[in-house]
Design a protein that fits this description.
Blueprint (H helix, E strand, L loop, with lengths): L6 E3 L6 E3 L2 E7 L2 H15 L4 E7 L1 H13 L4 H6 L3 E5 L4 H17 L4 E8 L11 H15 L4 E8 L5 H9 L4 E4 L2 E4 L18
Parallel strand pairs: 3-7, 3-8, 4-5, 4-6, 6-7
Antiparallel strand pairs: 1-2, 8-9
Length: 204
């Protein structure tokens, strides 16, 4: 029996989100961080869903520790090909190629939906390449990448450490949707003249 996906449950809120979505999730508290990790957890419950985690080392480690605390086994999920982990250590063009390679591998392995969770915040290592400008390029490219794969891309921004410039230019300006005040919303600050249209559904 073949399972067909048009949307997946976000988990951060109760919303169903169309595949092809690239959304921003600003977070501040430990509880809000764990809500973001729940997005990945829901993917582990379905063998048709695969997950990709991206971020600086400290953020990736925190996500993995949260998953373990909630009873998941990240090492086994990686061995089974259900979880790929990418580090924030390359320029935007290389990072986008690495993300696309992970997505392609997931589809070849049978993924009907891919959950991507990215983290932006301050780690010990500086931002690669051109710093903030590199992040803007990465996020702009991710919006187009999301439309080419059966995926939902959630970008978590740590508002405790991210600069206002990054939050505005790389966060709000490049994501068509955002979680704001515990609700999924169309992002009025998305800067594309024509926001990508989703064939799988709409968000009120």
């Amino acid at each position: 029996m073949t399972t067909s996906f048009d949307t997946i449950t976000l988990g951060i809120t109760g919303d169903e989100v169309p595949l092809g979505t690239h959304l921003l999730y600003p977070w501040r508290t430990d509880q809000e961080f764990e809500c973001g990790v729940r997005f990945l957890e829901l993917g582990f419950a379905s063998e048709s869903e695969y997950c990709v985690l991206f971020g600086h080392d400290e953020a990736n480690q925190r996500v993995l520790e949260t998953l373990e605390r909630k009873g998941h086994n990240p090492d086994r999920l990686r061995r089974d090909g259900r979880l790929a982990i990418l580090r924030r250590d390359a320029p935007a063009s290389t990072t986008l190629a690495n993300i696309e390679a992970a997505f392609s591998t997931a589809v070849r392995n049978g993924a009907k939906a891919i959950r991507y969770l990215g983290n932006l915040g301050t780690g010990q290592a500086p931002l690669p390449g051109r710093g903030a400008d590199e992040v803007v390029e990465l996020e702009t490219g991710a919006t187009g990448l999301a439309l080419r794969y059966p995926c939902v891309m959630v970008c978590m921004y740590d508002v405790n450490t991210v600069s206002g410039r990054l939050l505005l230019n790389a966060g709000f300006a490049t994501h068509p949707l955002t979680v704001w005040q515990d609700a999924l919303r169309q992002n009025p600050y998305y800067s594309s003249e024509e926001a990508p249209a989703h064939s799988h559904g709409t968000v009120a």
